[in-house]
Amino acid sequence: RPTSAPTVRRPTRERAVAERVVVLGGGACGMTAAHALARRGADVTVLEREASPGGLCGTHQRGGFRFDLGGHRFISRSAALHALVGELLGDALLLQERRSVVLHGGARYHYPLPLDDVLRHVGLARGARILGSFLGERLRKSLFRGPETTFEQWVTHRFGAAIYGDFFGPYTEKLWGIPPSEISADWAAERISLLSLSDVAIRLFGLRRGGARTYARRYLYPRLGIGQIFERMAEETTRLGGGVHLGARVTAIDLHRGHARAVRFHHEGREREVACDRVISTIALPALAKMLGGPSLPREIERSAARLRFRAIRLCNVLLDLPEVSPNTWMYVSEPGYRMARIQEPKRRSPHMAPDGKTSLVLEIPCDPGDAVWSATEEALWDRCMDDLSRLGFRDLRPATLDHFSTFVAEGYPIYHLDHRRDRDAVLSFVGATPNLISCGRQGGFRYVFMDAAMEMGLAAAEAASGGERAVRAIAALGSDEGSLLEARALTA
Asked: What's the pTM?
């Protein structure tokens, strides 16, 4: 049963600064930056293109049900960030425990994927092959230290070719839409929990239970969805004198002598303009570079920006007249024959995400804007998803469906192609030549970071905009260490 986090003091204004700061994007990073600036007394304006704050961490409502744009939860090793979220939400913040599985080959494996759990499911012959592959690669890695530039190399060297071929390879290609041999090893190093031989042996002989040690099981979650954090930030920013414009599409940044002096945007059917002393941008880094460079954008920067691509997500949200579907918070679907990559049941994070006696599902489907999945009709996509769920072992959910609808995320996951660091650094350097502009966040830093790291970027950007000396690339690099990304030292662990 969920319990409430302790109530703490309300946010207050801290100190006055004179700067006029325009924040492009009201997601986790941008809204956190704007809120921090408003508390310092800044003249801050947020321009958010969606109808509600939160960006990728927004929450949508439909018929008394609530749906996040993905599998978000709040975990951080930062005491300051915990205090901030506690101040905003008080007893509306729940303490929950994650339960995740991988659906594969008719079996359900614990997530993170422990080798001993895999061996228990696949049978003696297949298990011996997997274990032999794993041990062989570990031995080879200790004797021959070859390069690890691709996702395929990184995973194979640590888990063996058998587990890579069964789990990591197919899931990764479905998620990103390109072969794992074309994806940088950086993504694996940031996102995959390592298993040591001692961990495997201890669990195989029953001396310790539980999942991989690098993942926190407990997390904090708002009663009304992850977007509640940023809705509260928007309310507080407005109360403190800031402006939050929703449905505002940025069209241009006006430069004078190399400095950003005004931002133009389309809002409520009109072209508008707001003057600025500083800009904090969380819009996609390639789009920002084109906006700043215009027709004079250097060719090498244009080429690097074009290579910085994002993977889109279409989410099929299903409202169900059932009390529950599964005990799991979310379920990963590794096999390429199924449309969805992950299944979520929102009420497992908060019982307030669905009316009493009912539940819902969020089916995350990786795609690209304009492709067959992105362009499919609501009915066709829902029908295909119902077929997939039935094949995965869930009962036919069609009769229990009350309603269904899609939400779309065009710029969901930065694609770490093999030379992404070089391209990202080149574009960040170009953007950084505008001294009163900071680009940060998942899209603005082209970094596949968790929500808490994006929020920390926002706090650092607010500090820099208030006179701090944090450089653009230093802010964009926040959260790059494996400890923060793998939640090893989360305060909720």
From this structure: 0.87
**Would you say how long the chain is, in residues?**
493
For 192-204, write each residue's pLDDT tens digit.
654 443 454 444 4
Pairwise CA distance, residues 47 & 55, whole Å: 11
Q: Is the pLDDT of residue 140 over 80?
A: no
CA distances from 196 to 123, 330, 345 (A): 22, 25, 31
Burial of 66-87, coded b for 16+ CB within 10 Å and e otherwise, reads: bbbbbbbbbbbbbeebbebbbb
Sole residue written with tokens 């430069």: 255
Contact yes or no for 91/222 (Cβ under 8 A): no
* Rounded-to-integer distance, Cα 336 and Cα 78, Å: 37
Q: Which two tokens stand for residue 295?
A: 């027709």
Element (H, E) at 371: none
Single-letter residue type at 82:
H
Contacts of 325 (CB under 8 A, 6+ apart): 345, 359, 361, 394, 397
Q: DSSP letter for 7, please.
A: P
The answer to whether the CB of 57 falls within 8 A of the CB of 229 is yes
- For the stretch 282-317, pLDDT in tens is 999 999 999 999 999 999 999 999 999 999 999 999
- CB-based contact 270:68 (threshold 8 Å): no
